[in-house]
Amino acid sequence: MNKLKLIGLAVALSGCQVVGNSVDVEDVAQSRRYEHSASVTQFSDHLDQFFTQSVRDNVLDSVIRLLESSGSSVSQGQDRQTGAAWFLNVGETEWQAIEVKRPTIETVSAEYDYIFRDIPYRATTQVNLRSGPGTEYARLRQLRRGEVFTVMAQVFASDWYLIEQAGIVQGYVHSDYATANVTSRDLLNARPNPLVLDGVVAPELPVYGYLGLLTCRSLSYRFNNESLLQEGGFVACQKQPGVWYIDAIVEPKNDQIYTQ
Asked: In terms of domains, do 104 and 177 share one?
């Protein structure tokens, strides 16, 4: 699949935007790690500055609900104990086109459209691992019941997962025979997709490039009390429904003192 096909795939998704051209993630991995860490720290500090623990948790839950909603949406509320108010605004879905390179079992096919996931799964029964997303593809081996693997990506408009173990792409498993180990996670604790392998050495295996999409949305927020206003924002990307991570800061603003 080439870049033009990938961009065309994203454009065809109703109501969505493509953010830039497809990029080789090895070129941006370090900056993504830094931006994620800085964004999480900033948002967490802003929450702590204005809200009690219970309201802080409610705001984080509201963020996930907004990210999961269709179209742009807003949410707001107030902490009765601190007097602080919050306002959240989420934008339309955006698709980031990227290329991920991985050591791969040689017979595995990489010529498909992917939605990147990065979630640990386990086999619910003994299941065939195949070289492509279909029963017509060769059986490479069998996964035993309970065996854990990472769903690196889902084949677009398909029920097949591309899986990896120990940083090496192993093949495809049908979703009917796998279940996620993680179904929800606090936004501040969810980690970015590991876009570049760290510490995985497999010189005997070919390295394949997988072109696919990340599902992302921008979210802006405003927190204020009687004397302080704080505004900021970030881009969040989805690993699977209910699991999102903060990817980057969006035009953060400095603290502002104001009088009502």
From this structure: yes
